[in-house]
């Protein structure tokens, strides 16, 4: 018979991540980023205590590297001890970043910290704060970084117990944006007899299925402009009738944000400066005191398109925007422009003037076909890359592109080709 209990499901803490992309940022920005994964861990502990969780499950990549840093291990040891002192156990499965094959310091861990071993899933009981059995928690850790086998197929629930919770670091249904470690299918998870699959590895939070629940909480701290917005963990409440409620808790210390700034309607660079500063201030207010790593995408049509296409224009605007915003303070709610990209278009849409035919007309027709058919767009992109598309890293990049990414690339290529045709090849 199920009894009511609460647990926290987190994954992919990546403690002590180096944030290599911020090498050129000021010291205050680099230091805040370096501490951000530990700040997210601090928020996780605080959330577990505040929500009166009975236990915490961590589904892999607790550390950023297999040879985990001493600093990361000591910080997590402190967190585990604080949880244990509050009557909160923690169940840990290691993933590809922090597999058990890496170097580990010899530290004393609290009795309430349970680490799943490699190869075969193991099972631990999980208790409520009042000592009553709440669930059986099953899990397995990676023995080596590249786990290619289907670990999910090895999970078997016990015949008894009020609730069965499986912890696994895996790629469900082959998400192309992530390495295909411990691959498995959603159908086999839902049919395996567990009440909840606490997953890790995919950094976007997703609820793949309900009853049984199959859940990715995402990572706790964004590490690049690909990981924008809130990041955190789920507080999972199970009622005495077996109902499950998920409440997301934002744990990120530093936010990553990408925002579009339109040049449409702008005639002068002075107007663009004002719009960029307005955007940065809006982002700062929305962050409510948290620092923001900001990527700006200039888009839209207008007369500023041509000067923005000049070599070095994006970098010049980035440098000036950083200068206008000033030096970030170490403990402040700063906004640091990480990159400016230009995706603008000419004031006049060349496609409208291409109906008369000729090379421009053929280009417009081909662009329209590609825009209407994502599969055709991908074939066009692969054909354009030629033999380069056969290279493993390029192929991996191509496989990770969304339809929107492909459409943007092909549209930009069409705009550049049209500019060359209109200028007689001098663009």
Name the overall outline.
globular
Q: Please indicate the count of domains.
A: 3
Task: Give me the CATH fold name of the largest domain.
Answer: Purple Acid Phosphatase, chain A, domain 2
Order of helices and strands: EHEHEEEEEHEEEEEEHEHHEHHHH
> Biggest sheet: strands side by side, in what order?
4-3-2-1-11-12
Distance between the termini: 73 Å
Helix/strand/pairing class, anyone?
Answer: alpha/beta
Average pLDDT: 92
Instruction: Please provide the count of β strands.
Output: 15
CATH homologous superfamily (4th level) name of the largest domain: Metallo-dependent phosphatases
Low-confidence stretches: none
Q: CATH first level of the largest domain: which class?
A: Alpha Beta
Beta-strand content bin: 15-25%
Per DSSP, the total helix count is 10
CATH level-two architecture of the largest domain: 4-Layer Sandwich
Radius of gyration: 25 Å
Q: What proportion of the residues is helical, as a percent range?
A: 25-40%
Largest sheet: 6 strands, mixed
Structure description:
The chain has helices spanning 27-50, 70-85, 186-190, 269-287, 305-308, 313-325, 358-372, 374-385, 392-400, 403-422, and strands spanning 5-10, 55-59, 89-93, 113-115, 122-127, 133-139, 164-169, 196-200, 206-209, 213-216, 232-238, 244-250, 255-262, 292-301, 335-345. By secondary structure, the protein is an alpha/beta fold. It has three domains: 5-250, Metallo-dependent phosphatases (Purple Acid Phosphatase, chain A, domain 2), CATH 3.60.21.10; 254-347; 351-427, no CATH class. The strands form three sheets. It has a six-stranded mixed β-sheet, with helices on one face. α1 (27-50) packs parallel to α2, α7 (358-372) crosses α8 and α8 packs across α10 (403-422). The model has no long low-confidence stretch (mean pLDDT 92).
